[in-house]
Design goal:
By secondary structure, this protein is of the alpha/beta class. It contains 28 helices and 28 strands.
Length: 724
């Protein structure tokens, strides 16, 4: 097995890399971008806004990471030179994801006529007129609107308002491919679908579980809190099939002592269950807590329901079943449960390693059960923390970019705007793509992101996207999703402002339910336009007789007034641009045990252990250190021994079992497809494998969790063989 023990996350190399990136950007431009009062463009961890671009929600400075700098380096690029568009789409399609990102910013509207082999730059008025005409002549029921988590609350609200006024509830966002299982699982247990902690709670907890996540790569500033917990004498228990070096030891650039001593210990304990077996492990931990007598009986009695059914299920579950399913020895489970039993304040943080399964909702329910059994909800310094990905993915959901709205919110919207919205239930992201594959989608509006690359089963994704007759993209840069899966139909791509370039202030929501205000105001490319302006222009052209003043509603203050009046908990938006007062959203579970369920209590949920074949090799797709979502900044992963994008990480025993050796070219097969990669040994349990997203999407099928509609990116049955 490859020795990764010498690899330390963070450290001088990352500092030098960041400084090099800043140098390429230009120190003046980089400083302006990083210090302006705008929310970070990377993950949803609390940074930026009116506290200052390099300051977090606790006023800690400097709070910046490699991901922040990488995002800024992309946005600060000059516009793509027009001679680039003389190349055919097929030629552009030969570029890697990294090469596409480094072409520059998109600075002009582009149009691909039906059947044409290339894009043509066009003027804004022609682009808007044609896009509006194509959408207006299309049956709204044969369209969908999709948004990434990059957009602002203001643009997101106008986006879904335009879609519904147009006549479709097929409004969805990237959360269906990431944390929708979290929202569903938390609603069944605590009645609310978001975090129950704020950033300050991490400063007083004495135990943090990090489950199915790799924050050393994906949420680097969270590592600072893990380090601090350890230094207070607390524990960090990592549950992850892969032994990630950055979660073992991390040299935190913000901490001189951490840098000087060559890194800080992060994980105090590290459990490595087989991929897909987490429920068995969680049930084992809960069973051990009950057997050790450390449950919070008072909390359970006063603030929970269905506990007896939950306990009866655990009593009927044997330790042999648990150990056989997850591969973790009973003694290890009992040791971790005992440490949990001694904790006064515990926070459970998890990522997509929990949600990317056909039983993702049940995974989240099992985590919630484990928190409830010791009363770790509804009090300070304890609770549940889903580690959200993009910087406003939670806000996009809050303000209504989803197929089904709460009845009271829908009624308020209809009353406020004097319209009646369609009654048909909207489709989730995968359902829209399957409709497209079937030839039942004629047009799509895609705001940000890379839907083609984010969708599992690349062949399916290409067929589905290719079947859509008119595709309208709103984006800051070109990506592979703009040159693959185009089919023969028309394609329009409109260049939009980055967050710090917005003409008017915008708002975003962090993973801690905190709404931040971004000033915008930086001008880099004068030919780009804000998303809300574009949507307003489309609305007045598509629906000239609508009672909604789409042109007026492209003004952000007017949109915020509407959100404040319509969306519960968002009342503070009404004067945020005047008062500059950022706020936590009301009525979300925080520091009192009052839950959003009908009876006001938290509910235990029995979660069956999924059936698993012990001889089946199971693959999880993962991100690299030099990556953000589907954006590739670096081709090699410095935290996994400089592994390349087509590395397939395997346990040494599995490599021997399948007769493959280190670095050998192998064929990886699944029911969805086949990929050629390179065998790479890694510290994984037998029967578990990893490969990089989105390259390994060719192996991921389109089956989804029946409740969250999230694909199983992290539990793909595969087989491998040497290439002859």
């Amino acid at each position: 097995m490859a020795d990764t023990s010498a690899i330390v996350g963070g450290g001088p190399k990352k500092v030098l890399y960041t400084l090099s990136t800043i140098g390429k950007m230009g120190v003046g431009k980089a400083t302006k971008a990083l210090t302006a009062k705008n929310t970070c463009k990377a993950c949803a961890y609390g940074m930026g806004g009116q506290h200052g671009g390099m300051t977090n929600e606790l006023d800690e400075f400097p709070s910046v990471c490699n991901k922040s700098v990488q995002a800024q380096s992309t946005d600060i690029q000059p516009a793509i030179p027009h001679p680039i568009f003389e190349h055919t789409i097929a030629e552009l399609g030969e570029l890697t994801g990294k090469e596409m990102e480094h072409l520059g910013r998109l600075g002009t509207p582009l149009f691909r006529r039906a059947g044409s082999d290339r894009f043509v730059p066009i003027d804004w008025d022609s682009a808007l007129e044609h896009a509006a005409h194509r959408l207006a002549e299309t049956d709204p029921r044969r369209t969908f609107f999709y948004s990434s988590g990059r957009s602002s609350n203001e643009a997101g609200f106008l986006f879904q308002l335009l879609a519904r006024a147009y006549g479709t509830n097929n409004v969805n966002n990237c959360s269906y491919y990431c944390h929708q299982a979290t929202s569903e699982g938390l609603v069944t247990t605590i009645g609310k679908g978001t975090a129950t902690v704020e950033l300050e709670d991490l400063t007083g907890t004495d135990l943090i579980f990090v489950i199915g996540a790799n924050p050393s790569s994906n949420h680097p500033r969270f590592i600072h809190m893990l380090k601090n917990c350890r230094e207070r004498g607390g524990q960090v228990i990592v549950i992850n099939p892969a032994k990630e070096p950055g979660l073992v030891k991390f040299a935190v650039p913000k901490s001189p002592m951490s840098m000087l001593k060559g890194g800080s210990d992060i994980a105090s304990d590290y459990l490595q269950p087989r991929i897909g077996s987490d429920i068995a492990l969680f049930k084992g931990l809960a069973k051990a807590v009950l057997e050790q007598g450390t449950e919070d009986a008072d909390f359970i009695r006063a603030h929970s329901a269905e506990f007896e059914v939950f306990r009866s299920d655990l009593e009927g579950l044997s330790w042999d079943e648990i150990v056989s399913a997850c591969g973790i020895a009973r003694e290890e489970i009992e040791r971790v449960a005992a440490n949990y039993g001694r904790a006064k304040h515990a926070v459970f943080a998890w990522g997509m390693g929990m949600t990317h399964h056909v039983h993702g909702v049940a995974n989240v329910e099992a985590i919630s059960n484990l928190a409830l059994v010791r009363g770790m909800l509804g009090k300070r310094f304890a609770g549940l923390l889903p580690l959200r990905g993009h910087s406003n993915v939670q806000g996009i959901g809050t303000i209504g970019v989803k197929p089904v709205l709460a009845k009271d919110v829908l009624a308020k919207m209809e009353e406020a705007f004097g319209v009646t919205f369609p009654e048909e239930k909207g489709l989730d992201t995968m359902a829209c793509m399957k409709r497209a594959e079937a030839g039942e989608i004629d047009a799509a509006v895609i705001m940000g992101g890379n839907l083609w690359a984010a969708t599992p089963d690349t062949a399916f994704s290409s067929r589905a996207m290719g079947n859509i007759g008119f595709k309208l993209f709103l984006t800051t840069t070109l990506n592979q999703g703009h040159v693959h899966g185009l089919g023969d139909g028309e394609v329009m791509i409109l260049p939009v402002t980055a967050r710090d370039e917005e003409w008017e202030p915008t708002t975003q929501e962090s993973m801690f339910n905190f709404v931040r205000l971004s000033d915008g105001g930086i001008e880099r490319i004068e030919t780009v336009r804000p998303e809300s302006w574009i949507l307003g222009q489309l609305g007045q052209r598509m629906l000239p007789d609508s009672p909604i003043d789409f042109d007026g509603f492209s003004k952000h203050s007017k949109i915020r007034d509407a959100i404040a009046a319509i969306v519960p908990g968002m009342e503070g938006l009404a004067d945020i641009d005047v008062a500059k007062r950022e706020f936590h959203i009301q009525n979300r579970v925080m520091h009192t045990p009052s839950f959003g369920t009908v009876d006001g209590k938290a509910h235990f949920v029995v979660t069956p252990i999924p059936a698993m074949r012990p001889d089946q090799l199971m693959l999880a797709t993962v991100r690299s250190e030099g990556q953000f979502n589907s954006i590739i900044y670096e081709e090699e992963d410095s935290y996994r021994g400089k592994a390349g994008r087509y590395s397939v990480f395997l346990n040494a025993q599995d490599m021997a079992r399948f007769g493959v050796s280190e670095g050998e070219r192998i064929a990886v097969s699944s029911e969805a497809g086949e990929m050629v990669g390179f065998a790479t040994s890694f510290d994984l349990p037998a029967g578990s494998a990893m490969a990089y997203y989105p390259e390994a999407n060719v192996l991921v099928g389109t089956e989804v969790d029946p409740r969250s509609k999230t694909p199983a990116f992290k539990s793909v049955p595969i087989s491998i063989r040497p290439m002859l």
